[in-house]
DNA sequence: GAGTGGTCTAGACCACTCC
DNA sequence: GAGTGGTCTAGACCACTCC
């Protein structure tokens, strides 16, 4: 139920309830959820509040509205950029695999504007004993923002988890350029393929909630990785 | 001014007015636009209508809201997928260039589920007498939805403009897979380069407002094209 | 304290879908 | 005709920014 005295807006509370109902399977894929009028009675709020909650879930790609019919559960493939860890985790979970990370290199380097941790990781998914490597990530993290971050074990925890939990900084959006490259000796060896095949590289910056740059990153996608985008026109 | 008797919703009319004011420079980058209260008086509509129009422009990455301060013009680099025409036009305009399109092939073909127009276009930008080709687009457009669309001249008008103006269908979002490929003889000739270099290809579907697939598309980016993405984490 | 956007109420009339 | 979501009105109170 909704709590009108809490500081969390009613539409956010409602949004969470509906989202949970979708995820736990109370409302199933392709099903029409209760109408706005019905929810008005159930949750004792006005239609404006219901509609705001639903609109956000439509944006989250969980619901789709059908004029005259109702609102349907529709788990569309999201902006599925498997380059980041949250996407990574989802991707693995869908396939019933475990996300894994191997640290190839970790060092402190000086760039023109300060000290950075340079971290190179091979990332992929594991199913039973078989590991499939998907991306080769090189990150540059400013020590000024994250003092001592080089002490952590990045094969156990994701970089973003550590930023969240230990520094209270939340990576929020990324600006990436996407380039095609030819694989080299290193990518052949790491991803385990032969011949000259083209790969995709994404490079750019990751920003926190206030716009600060929290990471410079370069991701090379191996031949097994998929790269999908959903975009507005 | 707004026309309350037109079938176009007031918030869409208002949205177009504000967007035009931004594009033509009446409201400049970094400037605060008139407040919601002020617009209520100016356009004689309620705040709900104003807010809906503004919310959509925030989604379009033209405005940003600052609680307590106002709503600012903020032409963020969009999910800048220069693969589509609107992005294309913006891209060209920024660089003071003219978007150009050359139709390489146009034919009617039958696929398993009906007849399609297959359209191959080379697209790029022109500055004075020099043309820079950026992408090679192959589109499949269902004739069931767009009867007679093959009669138009696609070197003069964009495909999406024709869909809008003549069929009242608005391409709204795209689902794309992104793959690296090796260029071949054809891409070398068209984009004018030599040697074996990797390119980016995006392929997928474009959907209308109601989710119908309005186009299957494959875009090959030439060596001159940039591909940028802004994504949430 | 004045002005801004954020949330919410309580209605109204409409276009659309389904029967 | 009954039910659905789409648009819109006319208010209220709030948190936030700026002075």
From TrEMBL, chains A, B:
**Top-rank taxon, per record:** Bacteria
Looking up InterPro entries in the UniProt record yields: Bact_HTH_transcr_reg, Chorismate_lyase_/UTRA_dom_sf, Tscrpt_reg_HTH_GntR, UTRA, WH-like_DNA-bd_sf, WH_DNA-bd_sf
Keyword 4Fe-4S included in the entry's annotation:
no
Q: Does the keyword Electron transport apply?
A: no
Show the Pfam families listed in the entry: GntR, UTRA
Query: What are the protein's UniProt keywords?
Result: DNA-binding, Transcription, Transcription regulation
The record's listing under SUPFAM superfamilies reads: Chorismate lyase-like, Winged helix' DNA-binding domain
Enumerate the spans annotated as HTH gntR-type domain: 8-76
Q: Mind telling me what this protein is named? A: GntR family transcriptional regulator
Task: Please give the organism.
Answer: Paenibacillus phytorum
Lineage, broadest ranks: Bacteria, Bacillati, Bacillota, Bacilli, Bacillales
């Amino acid at each position: 139920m909704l709590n009108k005295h809490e500081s969390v807006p009613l539409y956010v509370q409602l949004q969470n309830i509906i989202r949970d109902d979708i995820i736990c399977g109370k409302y199933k894929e392709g099903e029409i959820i209760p109408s706005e009028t019905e929810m008005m009675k159930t949750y004792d709020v006005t239609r404006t509040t219901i509609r705001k909650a639903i609109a956000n879930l439509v944006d989250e790609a969980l619901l789709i509205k059908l004029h005259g019919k109702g609102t349907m559960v529709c788990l569309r493939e999201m902006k599925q950029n498997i380059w980041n860890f949250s996407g990574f985790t989802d991707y693995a979970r869908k396939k019933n695999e475990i996300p894994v990370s191997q640290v190839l290199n970790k060092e402190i380097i000086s760039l023109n504007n300060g000290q950075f941790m340079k971290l190179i990781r091979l990332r992929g998914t594991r199913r039973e004993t078989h590991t499939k490597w998907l991306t080769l990530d090189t990150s540059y993290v400013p020590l000024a923002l994250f003092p001592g971050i080089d002490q952590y074990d990045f094969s156990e925890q994701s970089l973003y988890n550590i930023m969240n939990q230990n520094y209270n900084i939340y990576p929020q959006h990324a600006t990436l350029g996407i380039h095609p490259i030819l694989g080299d000796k290193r990518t052949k060896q790491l991803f385990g393929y032969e011949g000259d095949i083209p790969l995709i590289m994404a490079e750019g910056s990751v920003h926190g909630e206030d716009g600060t740059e929290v990471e410079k990153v370069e991701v090379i996608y191996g031949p097994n990785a998929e790269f999908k985008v959903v975009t507005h026109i």
